[in-house]
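Quick question, first post here. What does this chain look like in 3D?
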Amino acid sequence: MSFRTRLTSFFVLIVVIPLAAVGILVFRLISDSQQGKADARANGLASVASSLYRSDSLTARADARTLARALAVSPAGLTRSKIATIAGQLGLARVTVHLGPRLVADVGGADALAPGRAIAQLGGGQPALTVTVSELTAPQFVRAVSAPGAGAVVFRGRQVLASSVAVVPPIPSQGTVSVSATSYRTVTQQLPGFDGRPVSVAVLSNLAASTGSVTGSRILAAGFIVAVLLLAGSFSVMASRGLQGQLSRFLQAARRLRGGDFSSPIETVGNDEFAALGTEFNHMSNELERRLDELSRERARLREAIQRVGQTFASNLDRTALLGLALKTSLDAVGASAGRTSTREGPAQPLVEVVREGDLAGMQDAIYQAEQQALEARDVGSGESDAGSVLAVPLGPLESDGRLHGLLTVARSGAGFSGDDRDVLRSLATRAGLALENVELHVQVSRQAVTDELTGLANHRRFQELLEVELEQVRRYGHAVGLIMLDIDDFKSVNDTYGHQQGDVVLRRVARALADSSRDADLPSRYGGEELALILPHTDMEGAYAIAERIRTAVEALRVPQSNGVEPLRVTASLGVASSRDGRKEALVGEADSALYEAKRQGKNRTVRAQVRAANVLGGG
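> Answer (accepted):
Ran it through. Tokens below.
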């Protein structure tokens, strides 16, 4: 990829893509602002409608008290016609009068809203007089609430009492509805109705009311983004041309150095960073020329040694032998006479010496000093004593807790170690660490190959291998081996109802109950799907049945938590038990499987023994 292409890519990454993201965000914010204005307008209309409704209800309550006092004077003469006349004179939309529980009169329309109620107590043991009054009808309320760009709907259930737009309930409590290609934001409230049933009042705010301002904002935002993009592009082109001119001189000088020509230094102009870089480049060229002869003498030997070590490390899976090889190679590479490697068995374990070469007597203080420096600096550490010099280097990557995987330490008497010795030791330790990672990875992969990832039990393949081993012992020595097949009851309904993640939690909990309820010598496995298996060495039918019942009881006692925090799930399992003394694998698995499905047929959550075969009977089973 050329420098120009990289600069273009860099421009796209730091300018174009962020600006595009900002544009998307701005447009989204503008749209959200439009919706927020519509929501605010709708909420304001809803507040006005609620206030108007309650105001009319208070007025109706005052009318009801006045009417109740007037009717209480002569309650015996109450008739519907009389009440209708009074309602007409007062301009009431609806009036109901109850004498005790008895309805005396109901005058007015069913679309009356904002009721007010008053109760008058009559003397002489007569029942109370209840008067309910409304001055407001649904159409009057809709006209009062409606405004330009806004409307209202009053409905009870799916029955529209009055509406300013042709909309059919149900209407969302807060959301968007479309009426004749016009979108409205709605706010619906429940208000008390005349006959005790609530009525729903929905106010609608036209989303198109803010479209003009949104369009203008979008045009302004788009223009600003385009202007910034053009300005950034112009500066990028200018910077690219200047950088290419400067870098071309360094490229030509680097090509001369590659050809072994150290006689043409870079011409430095000015006092900027490129001039400083040119000066340092010339110093590097002189130093490189000076050290070229020295490095060429060591290069072949080191390349051969490191290549040999790398190939050996890549193919060797013996951890101790690998550490020994790393130590010997390090001793040869730096001319040391003795050394050791120390590693940890686990994250919580201390460093322990694993391999030692040569005599380290008298160098304990220097070794401690070098290893302490290596642990603290996480790099090569050194130590000196009268007996000689010591180098120590971290062996392998850092662990999650910040501690090192191991240390490689070398020592020699006489002259101390040079900087090149440090570099060589650091390189060898890095390769040894990578090789140790390969060993650990091989062990991990081998373990994963026979382990079910979800439950942590042996997988089906491992189950077949373990069962074959146990049955070989049966065939050779004649002792019994038991087999339990377990199937989680109604597991499909758990997945269908609560999701497969919840099903995985159930499966893991049941697998743990199986493992916890089995003996140390037993071999729990995941047979497939929601079916588990347990191999029971040296166990006859009755012993296997007792263990199966213990497992079934443990599963029945499980309370599996749900991710949404509601009541935990309860699960059960059906188990089939079989035992063999003749070592026939297919027969044993088939009998246990048949017993399992017999347990299912008998009603689940039970353990069923397999029918004893003739061969088992003859063998003493």
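The chain is about 50% helix and 20% strand.
Residues 396 and 405 are 6 Å apart (CA to CA).
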